[in-house]
Amino acid sequence: MNYVSKQLKGNGRLANLADPSEEQSNMTGEEPEGLGDLSRAERFLNAYAAIEKEMKRILESTDHRPFFELVNKSVRINPIIERYRFDLKEYAELRNAIVHDRAGGEIIAEPNSAVVKNIEHIAGLLLEPPRVLPLFKKEVLTLSAEQPVARAIRDLSKLSYTQAPIMEDGKVKGLLTLKMIVQWMGHSLANNTFDIEKTTIGDLLDQLNVSNGYEYVSAGKSLLEIPDLFYRWQDQGEKLEAVLITENGKKDEPLLGIITNRDLPLVHRSLE
To answer: Parallel, antiparallel, or unpaired for β 242-246 and 214-218?
Structure first.
């Protein structure tokens, strides 16, 4: 058993990351599992180097810093590094085993296929993170502040939606939710002022005087940052009802799409 094999066997975590039994093609005569002529180790090291370079760019670091330190500092800035920080730290140990423990300059331990695919996936997310568009590009249901509450209920029910932006003079005045409609119904019934046909959506918003439960993001916003928006509101004891997408994330721009709580499973699946 060679040196790296002994080290990997004695380290349970590294043993799960590398497969020292799968030798290089010049040792077994078999082609390594990789892209083109690249072995798994070479693919791993290429992805590792790309991640390291990108973290240095993010941190605007020009001097040499240990990979662990780059990860620890980047988690505060980049949601991708934050999400995969534990994987990256384990990969740093594997990288050291690959680079520093060689026989005659040749790599004698190969990362397993799952590890290579995962680190390449992380590098891909970091270098070209998926954006909110085109995944959530859609025609957004909007309602007018002048329309009766009855119209809002019909439109929301027809599409099984739970909220819709309210437009006034071409701009978003607020966000109407089914919860707000129920609150208004209870309030107006108690005061004997319930009139679903004559009360406008604008009247409802003014009567409830609730805070806006939405945020704007640009079309180029990283998809990875979307769950954090919802969690941040939750940590503050509030609920983010919707994320409104415009070209530059400005409220006076046309709506290009919308993301709600019900879309979070799709967001997570798109990042797998």
So the answer is: parallel
Q: What is the pLDDT along the chain (272 residues), one digit of tens a residue?
A: 433 333 334 444 444 565 544 444 433 444 444 456 788 988 999 999 999 999 999 999 988 999 999 999 999 888 889 989 999 999 999 998 888 766 566 666 689 999 999 999 999 999 998 999 999 999 999 999 999 999 999 999 999 999 999 988 888 989 999 999 999 999 999 989 899 999 999 899 888 877 789 999 999 999 988 998 999 999 999 999 999 999 999 998 999 999 999 999 999 888 77
- 172 and 54 inside one domain: no
Q: Give 3-state DSSP helix, strand, coil % of the chain, rounded to 5.
A: 50, 15, 35
pTM: 0.71
CA–CA dist 10, 184 (Å, integer): 66
d(CA 100, CA 80): 28
DSSP code string of 212-250: P-EEEEETT-BGGGHHHHHHHHHHTT----EEEEESBS-
Q: Is residue 136 part of a domain?
A: no
The residue from 127, 154, 189 where one domain ends is: 127
Q: Which domain holds residue 165?
A: 143-270
Same domain, 112 and 213: no
- Do residue 165 and residue 68 come from a single domain? no
**Sign of the alpha-carbon torsion through 142, 145, 148, 149:** positive
* Rounded Cα distance, 22 and 218, in Å: 46
**Domain total in the chain:** 2
106, 180: one domain:
no
Which CATH number covers residue 241? Answer: 3.10.580.10
